[in-house]
Amino acid sequence: MSTETLTIGKALNLGLRRAMEDDAKVVLMGEDIGKLGGVFRITDGLQKDFGDDRVVDTPLAEAGILGTAVGLAMRGYRPVCEIQFDGFVFPAYNQIVTQVAKIHARSRGKLAMPIVIRIPFGGGIGAVEHHSESPEAYFAHTAGLKVVAVSNPVDAYWGIQQAIAHPDPIVFLEPKRRYWEKAPVDTDATPEPLFASRVVRGGDDLTVLAYGPMVKTALQAAEAAAEEGRSLEVVDLRTLSPLDLDPVFESVRRTGRCVVVHEAPVTLGLGSEIAARITEQCFYSLEAPVLRVGGYDTPYPPSKLEEEYLPDLDRVLDAVDRALGF
Amino acid sequence: MTALHHATEVVDPVPGAEAPHLPQQPELVQLLTPEGERVEHPEYSIDISEDELRSLYRDLTLVRRWDVEATALQRQGELGIWASLLGQEAAQVGAGRALAATDMAFPTYREHGVAWVRGVDPLDVISLFRGVDNGGWDPVATGFNLYTVVIGAQCLHATGYAMGVQRDSADSAVLAFLGDGATSQGEVNESLIWAATFSAPVVFFCQNNQYAISVPIERQSRVPLFQRAAGFGFPGVRVDGNDVLAVLAVTKAALAAAREGQGPTFIEAFTYRMGAHTTSDDPTRYRLASELEEWKLRDPIARLKAYLSRTGIADHDFFDSVEAEADELAARIRTGTVEMVDPPGTSMFDHVYAEQTPELAAQRAEFAEYHASFADGGHDRPDEVTPGPGEDVF
Fold this sequence. Notes:
The complex is a heterodimer of chains A (326) and B (394). Chain A is of the alpha/beta class. Helices cover 36% and strands 21% of the residues of chain A.
């Protein structure tokens, strides 16, 4: 057993390194990912060790990154595309949703698109506009894509390797404000399946669902609630498409209450879908409506207001209070 | 009037307006005049046998017959839509015949002539327009990618594929097809940047058929399209797109350069879409009949026929035999189209993912169960429950 304490950022870096060592067809593509190591340094040192054919500093054009990845994938390569920030993915949106997502179906399975699209997503770092968004619902709504969101170093390390080895295109969301969170990672362990949610804290009174950067917030809320004698179960969704909700249904049938937390605007966000499914599956067990806590239906605000915009401990606890009050 | 003069008139960005900053309209590379006379070009020559010439004529004729038949089938309600290539046969057959077996072509949705040359069954193309599938051919086996409907998206795929060819040190090149309208797309411009930057073995073959649906080339560019290449740092050439010999020669040369590591070329095949954009379109609303009549004088098939007749390379018997073959092809297409079987409903779930998701597997099962619940099968056509995917290998 080999355990190291790693940040999410370093875990991703090591995961990428290991994926590149395991498969010579893995090619990293993106802006500033070479000498600079990416603006978050996730690819730090990789170009030096693997060469500029494997770690490609691309021209500054996101559609170009994704569109050429399609051609490389057709040729048997496994491109890992870095989008510098969430708000910059939209120039590539056409390629992702009309091409990357559809080519396997269009070709009746003759062409595979094993492409990973890494996106540092979410807010909380005091950035200017287009650097703090949560675009997951756009991608989760697109058939042909899979979407995962990691919340911790263990999932970052294993998840990136599993995503790269997977035959389908995966939008891989990295919680940028948690890049520096640390945890021990056993690099010899047998990883958990990629497309599975996980109960990260047991509890009896209410289920809190979260993913990516909000998992930590949810755990903090559970901690605070425990001091008031309330037992919250926290589930890290981990996979946003496909959704792995069976463990969630099980949890909600036991607790009878559920709060879904994400940073993205609440209206038509992932929480809406999850609330609908819980209602369908757990109707007779529910003691309260499924409540959602998320961003407002506004453009992501200037950074001086982001603490007001982002769900925090208090807003989660407030929702918990309301759910328990029914 | 020569083709060059016509070309100059048509492409002038603002007819009658002075544009002193623009370079002179360039000559088209031409090896066969509209009257069917062979001419030489200082940079491009072609060494071609009489058999090959006859075979080019055959391809042009059969492709046109296929196209005309498909248009008729659409009019009779057998196809949802059809994108006609009428008038562009020489550009497509010439470009397609320039490809080596190991090369890869990335078409738009109008490259039926290239499909034909690559050995794709016309019915596999027609099935897409009938709505039976998204194209029934194997892109890997044929070296002819599936059609791409989103304008210009395929140029990036071609460039990425060419980067893969380069990494594999493979002896092949890539031919990306696009139209004049596509040159306005950001993704096409990105593909030109990528191709130049990485010196990728890709040739961009732009069929300038003068219209993006209804919008003329003047709305896409103030300079002749092939000149754009200079701004990206690689050669551009304009070829008479209605001259199959010139197209063949120019494309072959560009593909050879790509294979030899000289990077990309942009070819502008100057041609004309004699039909509508698709069968949903009405070109009489945006172009004059006289313009069409002028272009008919440059018909790509008539000029080759004139050359073959004049030189005695082909005689009546040959032309009659090609006509007979075209009739047979048309009949086969007609029969094959109307007899095409709709796919089972469950098939829509089968290839969304290489690794099926539990959610979609559940939807598929629900769908099958729902349709099976109609005892008389009258609600939907009989729906066989085929095994799900998961065995996909790439």
